Amino acid sequence: MQHIIQRGNNRQVCFGSEQDFARYVNWLKDYAQKSQVDIHAWVLMTNHVHLLCTSRSENGIGKMM
């Protein structure tokens, strides 16, 4: 299992609206499935994201991100 943190450049805001959060989650689900990555948990904050993931393929997490 991997803990991934994705942060905005210089800790700037990544998500400016509820629509931004929803789009990110949709993209995350789509790319996780395509890359054979299981996402166990996520936390989306305005300027960063935490993910708990397990890859079922080589380089899956890198491909997903």
Query: Which shape, going by the Cα principal axes?
Result: globular
Q: Termini distance?
A: 15 Å
CATH architecture: 2-Layer Sandwich
Unreliable runs: none
The strand count comes to: 3
In round numbers, the mean pLDDT is 96
Oligomer: single chain
Residue fraction in strands: 25-35%
The CATH topology name reads: Alpha-Beta Plaits
Description of the structure:
This protein has one domain: Transposase IS200-like (Alpha-Beta Plaits). The chain is α+β, with helices and mostly antiparallel strands and 65 residues long. The chain is built from 2 helices and 3 strands; from the N terminus they run E-H-E-E-H. It has helices at 18-34, 60-64; strands at residues 2-7, 37-44, 48-55. The chain has a 3-stranded antiparallel sheet with strand order 1-3-2. It is globular, with a radius of gyration of 12 Å. Helices cover 34% and strands 34% of the residues.
